[in-house]
Amino acid sequence: MSRSSDLARPSDHIESDDAGEPVGGPKLGFVGSLRFFWRQLTSMRTALFLLLLLAIAAVPGSLVPQRSSDPNGVVQYRVDHPDLYPIVDALQGFDVYTSVWFSSIYLLLFVSLIGCVLPRTKHHWQALRAKPPRTPARLTRLDDVQVRSLADDPATALDRAEQLLRRRRYRTERYGASISAERGYLRETGNLVFHASLVGILLAVALGGSFGYSGQKIVVEGEPFVNYVAGYDSFTRGRLVSDVALDPYRITLDSLDVVYETENEHAVGQALDYTANVTVQQPGESGTATSTIKVNEPLRVDGTTVYLLGNGYAPRITVRNADGDVAFSGAVPFLPQDTNLTSIGVVKVPDGLPEQLGMIGFFYPTVGQLDTGALTSAYPDLTDPVLQLNVYEGDLGLDEGVPVSVYTLETDDLTQIAGRGTDVPAVDLAPGQTADLPDGLGSVTFDGVSRYASLEIHHDPSQGWVLLFAILVLAGLLTSLFVPRRRMWVKVLTEGDGRLRVEYAGLARGDDPGLSAAVAELAEEHAGADPALSRTT
Amino acid sequence: MTQTLDEISAILLFSGMGVYALAFIAFTLDLARRSARADVVAESGAERIARARAGGSTATLERPPVAAAPAERASASLRVGVTLAVLGWLLHLGATVLRGVAAARVPWANMYEFAMTGTLLIMGVFLVLLVRRDLRFLGAIITGLVVLLLGISTVGFRVEVVPLPPALQSYWLVIHVLVAILATAFFTVGFALSLVQLMQARREAGRQVRFRMPASIPSSTALENSAYRVVIVGFIFWTFTLIAGAIWAEHAWGRYWGWDTKEVWTFIIWTIYAGYIHARATRGWRGSRSAWLAIVGYSAVLFNFGIVNVFFKGLHAYSGL
Ligand code: HEM
Fold it and tell me: Disulfide engineering: A184 pairs with which of A165, A228, A485, B129, CB 3.0-4.6 Å?
C-alpha cells in the first residue's frame, strides 16, 4: 500500500480483515459460525452493501403514493390500477418506510454500525492513552521527508523540536536521539461521534413516537379549540399517551387575515400571507394572551406546536321551518376545490322540519360564469360571494350509529327537490339574502361568510433530542473529515564534521492533503529554509 | 420595473450562455490537441469546426499541417477557455443578481432560478478551485454541463417573477436552498473528476478507448483523491441541507420528516454518497468502483432536481411550472 496516497480510514481502525477466509475452510461449529457471521455483518463491505441497499429500497416509496404522506393518493391508486393495487399492497408498497423489508435493512445496518463502532471505540480509547510509536529506523524512506543540516548540539536541537511539535499540539515521545509525535486523535473521535449520533437519532425517533401525538382541527373565526382528545377532528397518538396527557388549553381564532396579490399580472390572486389572530387561554388561568400563527411561524403552547396548515370559507347559514322557527343555524366549513377557492360543503338539518333535509352547497367567493352557464369562482377573495344550494329531502342516515363524514352527503336514499336535475332551480344566495325552500318547507338564509383555519397540533418530546443528535452528526462529520491525523518524527544525527543532520518525516493517517507542507514548515521553523541534502539518500 | 430588470437579466443570461459555449469549444479544442499529442491521431471534429470558425470559413476541411508546436497552442486555447469561462460567469452573475433584484428576494425560489443560481455556483466553485489546483482539464465537462442545464432551464422552466407563496417566506429558503445548491456544485466537480478518473483508469489499463485522454492529465489515483476531497465538502453541505430541511419542514408543515418524495430523494442521495465515502475505505472498492458510486450519486442529484421537481407529486411543489 502506498502511504501518502492512502486516504483510507485511520490505520488504527480495525477492520476485522473482511472475514473472508473461512468460506469453504475448516468446519466452524456453532460458535464459530456465529462469530463468522458477526464478523461478516460488521465488516466495512457489509456496511457499504447495506447503505447502497437502503438507498435502493427507499426509491419505490417515491414512485407509489404512501399512506403516511399521501393517503388520498393511495385511494386514487386503487381506482387507477385495480390489478396492481393488491400486489403492491401485499408488498407493503404503500407503507415502504415502515415495511418489514425496509426496516430490516436499516436495522441490520444499525446493528452492523454498533458492532463496528464499539470495538473501534475501545481501540481508540487505548490509542488515546498510548505513547506515539517508535521512530522508524529509516525515516528517509517515508514519502514526506525533509533533511536539514544544523550547527547545534543534539540535546538543544531535540528540545527545540519537541517544543515546536508540542506547540502544534502533537503528543510527543523521545526515543533516543529522535522524537516521535502524533496528533489528530479528534479525527477518529469525530468519526465515532458521528456514527454513535446516527444511532442516537434512530433511538430518539423510535422512542419519540410513543410519547407524541398530533391532530387536526378546523376552527371557524370566532370559535374556540380546546386541546383534549375529543376536541379534535382527527387525532393520532403514540402508545404511551393517555387521555389526560393533553394539556387542555383553549385557543380562540379571532380572525384569519388573508392577503392576495393584486398588482403583479402574472400572479393576481396568489396568496401572499395568511395570519391567524388567536387568543390563548391556559388551563386554570383566567388571563388570556393574544398571538398570531403564520405558515412558517407556528405557535408554541404548553409543549405543543400549533400550525396553520390550511384555510377556507365557512358560509353562515340559517334554516327556518314554515313557521319561522330556527331548525339549523351555524357556520359550515366548505372544502376548497381550486385555487380560486370554489368550495363545496354540506348542510345537514336532521330536526325541526317535517322531513330531514340535506343540502350540497357550492360557494363562489367571487362569482363568475363559465361558457356553459355554470357558475365558477374568478378570484379567491370575497369580492362578490354567492352560495348555491342543491336541496335534498329524506333519511340522512345519521341514526344508524355509523359515523358519517360531515363533508359528504349520501344522496342514494334522498330525493332531490331543488337544483340541477330537477324542475326547481338551485337556491342562489348573496350574503344577507333569504330564499324559500321548495314545497313550502321553510326558508334558508345566507347570513354571511366567515373564514376558517385548519390547525394542526403536534406534541413530540423527542424532537429536541433528534436535533441534538443531528448537530452532533454534523460536528462529528466536520472533525472526522477535516482534522488531519498525522505522525511526525524528528531524528538528529551527528555527522563527521560535527554538524547535525536532522531528518523530519511525516505520515498521514487518513486523508491529509496538507501533510508535506506541514513537514516542510516544521523543518523550516526548526532549521531554516534550505534543505541540506537532497531528499534521496 | 420588475419586468424590465427581468428582461435585462434574461439577456445577460443568454450572453453568458454564448460565452460559456465558446469556452466549451476552447476547452474541447485543448483536450483534443493534447490527446492528439498523446498519440498521433486524426484531428477531431470539434477541432476542425472550431478551426473553421476561427478562420471565418465554414469549408476548411483539409487536414492541418501536423507539426505545428502543439504544446504552445494547447496552453493558449486553455487560457482562452478559462478567460471566457470567467467572462461568462460575470455575465451569469449579473443575470442572477438582476433576477434577484427584480423579484426583490433571493433568486432561488423556482426551477428556473434554482437552475440559474445552481449553474452559477457550479461555475463559481470550479473557478475558485482552479486558483488552488490545475483542474482546467475539467473545463470542457463543466462548461458543457452548465450550458446544457441553462439551455434546458431557459427553454423549459422559465417563469415570470411572481411573489413568494407563504410557505416559502422563511429565512430557511435562504439557508437551506443555498446550501443545497452549494452541495450540488461540489458534487458536480466531483462527478466530473470521477468521470475523468474512469477514463484515465481505462487508459492506464492499456485498454483501447475511443476518446483518448491527454497524457498530461493526472493519474487516476490522483484524480480519485481530488474527487474525494471535493465530494466530502459536498457531502457536508448536503448533510447540513438535510438537517436544515428537516428544521424548516418542522416550522412549515408541522413535522420534521415525513418521507415526502423530495425528502426521500434527499435521503437517497445522502446514502449513496455515504456509500461512496465508505467505498474508499473498503478493500476492493477503491478506484473505478467508487468512481461509479460518485457518478450514480450525481445522477440521483440530477434526477432529484430535474425529474422529481417536475413530475413527482409532493409537498415540495415549488417548481413554479
Ligand atoms: C447508518 C449507517 C452508516 C452511515 C450513514 C455511515 C456514514 C459514514 C460517513 C458519512 C463517513 C465519513 C465521515 C466520517 O469519517 O465520520 C463514515 C466513515 C466511516 N464509517 Fe460509516 N456509516 C455507517 C455505518 C458504518 C458501519 C456499519 C461501519 C463499520 C462496518 C462504518 C465504518 C466507517 C469507517 C471505518 C469510516 C471511516 C472511513 C474513512 O475514514 O474514510 N460505518 N461513515
Answer: A485
Domain positions in chain A? 42-122, 131-184+484-535, 213-459
* Interval between CA A169 and ligand 1 midpoint (Å): 26
Question: Rounded to an integer, what distance in angstroms lies between the CA atom of residue A150 and that of residue A159?
Answer: 14
Closest CA to A248 of A284, A291, A298: A284
Answer whether A296 sits within 8 Å of B308, measured CB to CB. Answer: no
Residue in A with minimal Cα distance to B286: A8
Amino acid at B263: E
Nearest CA to ligand 1 atom 30: A44
Residue of A nearest to B267 (CA): A55
Q: How far is the CA of B288 from the centre of ligand 1 (A)?
A: 20
Q: Looking at the partner chain, which of B252, B282, B283 has a beta carbon nearest the beta carbon of A295?
A: B252
Break chain B into its structural domains and give their ranges: 5-311
Question: Which three-class secondary structure string do you get for chain B?
Answer: CHHHHHHHHHHHHHHHHHHHHHHHHHHHHHHHHHHHHHCCCCCCHHHHHHHHHHCCCCCCCCCCCCCCCHHHHHHHHHHHHHHHHHHHHHHHHHHHHHHHHHHCCCCCCCHHHHHHHHHHHHHHHHHHHHHHCCCHHHHHHHHHHHHHHHHHHHHHCCCCCCCCCHHHCCHHHHHHHHHHHHHHHHHHHHHHHHHHHHHHHHHHCCCCCCCCCCCCCCCHHHHHHHHHHHHHHHHHHHHHHHHHHHHHHHHHHCCCCCCCHHHHHHHHHHHHHHHHHHHCCCCCCCCHHHHHHHHHHHHHHHHHHHHHHHHCCCCCCCCCC
Largest separation between any pair of C-alpha atoms in chain A? 126
DSSP summary character for residue A384: B
The minimal CB distance from A48 to the residues B170, B235, B275 is found for: B275
**Ligand 1 lined by A341 (C-beta under 6 Å):** no
DSSP assignment letter at A298: P
Cell triple for A526: 526548526
CA distance B82 to B78: 6
For residue A481 and ligand 1, the question of a CB distance below 6 A is answered with: yes
Judged by CB atoms closer than 8 Å, whether chains meet at B163 and A272 is answered as yes
Burial readout B37-48 (b: 16 or more C-beta within 10 A, e: otherwise): beeeeeebebbb
Q: Side-chain half-sphere of A465: how many Cα atoms within 13 Å?
A: 16
Apex CA A499: angle with CA A498 and CA A503, to 5°? 135
Topology (CATH) of A131-184+484-535:
TATA-Binding Protein (3.30.310)
> All 3 cell numbers of residue A256?
384569519
pTM to 2 decimal places: 0.85
Residue A62 · residue B308 · CB < 8 Å: yes
B283 CB within 6 A, ligand 1 = no
Q: Which of B162, B261, B267 sits opposite A267 (nearest CB)?
A: B162
**Residue A371 CA, distance from chain mean position:** 46
Query: Residue B234 and residue B184: Cα distance in Å, rounded?
Result: 7
> B250, A463: Cβ pair inside 8 Å?
yes
Name every residue whose Cβ is closer than 8 Å to that of residue B169 and which is 6 or more positions away in sequence: A273, A295, A296
Q: Per residue of chain B (321 residues), what is the pLDDT tens digit?
A: 677 888 899 999 999 999 999 999 999 988 887 776 655 433 444 444 444 444 444 333 444 444 444 444 457 888 899 999 999 999 999 999 999 999 888 998 888 999 999 999 999 999 999 998 888 999 999 999 999 999 998 888 888 888 888 888 889 889 999 999 999 999 999 999 999 999 888 888 876 666 666 667 888 889 999 999 999 999 999 999 999 999 999 888 888 998 988 899 999 999 999 999 999 888 888 889 999 999 999 999 999 988 887 777 666 666 655
A397-402: long-range contacts (C-beta < 8 A, 24 or more apart)?
Answer: A398/A348, A398/A350, A398/A356
| Model ipTM over 0.90 | no
